[in-house]
Amino acid sequence: MSPNPAHRTIDTIWRIESPKVIAGLTRMVRDVGLAEDLAQDALVIALERWPETGIPANPGAWLMMTAKRRAIDVLRRSKRRDEKYAELARETSLYTEDDADSRLDGEIGDDLLRLIFMTCHPVLSREARVALTLRLLGGLTTEEIARSFLAAESTIAQRIVRAKRTLNAEKVPFEVPAGPELQERLSAVLEVLYLLFNEGYSATSGEHWTRPLLCQEALRLGRVLAEILPGEPEVHGLVALMELQSSRLRTRVNADGEPVLLMDQNRAQWDRLLIRRGLAALERSRRLGRALGPYSLQAAITACHAQAVTPEETDWTRIAALYEALSRVAPSPVVELNRAVAVSMAFGPAFGLQLVDELCAEPALKDYHLLPSVRGDLLSKLGRHEEARAEFERAAAMTRNERERTLLLNRAAACGNMAEGE
């Protein structure tokens, strides 16, 4: 995106509005690839016009109307023209920007949920489902998705292209399935919502440490799923996790937008209503009587933080045990890295560093900036400041988030100062 201030504003609007526009267009044209192309056309028009005319009062409705007009032009040229005209006559009426809000509000929520289930269809591989949904609903770039997967950007790009072609070729319906088919897609839908929330909670790139609107949308969709599937413990577990983590969003950055680490946050400002909602959702998951799954276990870990009035009261021994359970249910190098942090807090940095050092040869973490970041933190606590400085600098070079890079470079400088004073 251009550094032009107007273009930066449009980019922000696009990230917020594009999932709604794509979902509405998919309902209209029944082709998710075409819907994304049409939405991109509307963005190009906005980039050309808005710097001169100003941002419309309702930019989301403007983008939707512009894209729908493009869709009608495409359908007019389509071989299925007559069929589509009849369908449009039944489903679409013309409206002005003035009444766009009232007409769109009732469609958006259902369309987004339908789009998630469409892109999580079993005709696609698990990796393709998640990548495509993050692209369309999260507004994430291919690079951001690749970093979430710890995969090559070219690999993710190919997955997304193939996924859109497959959905179109297989004529996957734009609907929320029922019965066994809904269950079949549920794990992929939950994973998408989880990754969507995580991108909002800790943005992989850009100028902002968090993207709260992504968190809000993931949480809203999670609550809808919990209403549809009250007997699924992992749905409640994921909602619990998102509620509890959302309670800390306002304290994750200071007044200047700079990151504030968990142990430095003002816990008096954590949202107590969201904490109560999260704990209640976690209890609903437990009451269903099944072994806790990965989302419920992560919610239980987050609950330990939420219930600690001060950082010193955090039950790190329990958190370490929960990470041990999580590593058995959903083993991954990232879980092991988090477990190492918990072990270091419960039993000392030397024990944590030993676990982290064992992960240094893990291929999946080769470009994962939190590995050297955690290692730098542990080395600093052990008084090995020069080594810590090098690790923080390495982490800063890896991250694509500007706020996080500044934080890591500041920590590296602080370690350098301590090393010089020794």
Question: How does this model look, in words?
Answer:
The chain has 422 residues and is an all-alpha fold. It has a domain of 108 residues. The protein is 72% helix and 1% strand. The protein is built from 19 helices and 2 strands. The protein has a two-stranded parallel sheet. The longest helix has 25 residues. It is globular. The two termini are 46 Å apart. 41% of the residues are buried. About 4% of the residues have low confidence.
Helix/strand layout:
Layout: H1 5-29, H2 32-53, H3 59-76, H4 81-91, H5 100-119, H6 126-138, H7 142-149, H8 153-169, H9 179-201, E1 205-206, H10 212-228, H11 233-246, H12 272-287, H13 294-306, H14 316-329, H15 333-347, H16 349-359, H17 370-381, H18 385-398, E2 400-401, H19 402-421
Parallel strand pairs: 1-2
Helix pairs in contact: 1-2, 1-3, 1-5, 2-3, 5-6, 6-8, 6-9, 7-8, 9-10, 9-11, 10-11, 11-12, 11-13, 12-13, 13-14, 14-15, 15-16, 16-17, 17-18, 18-19
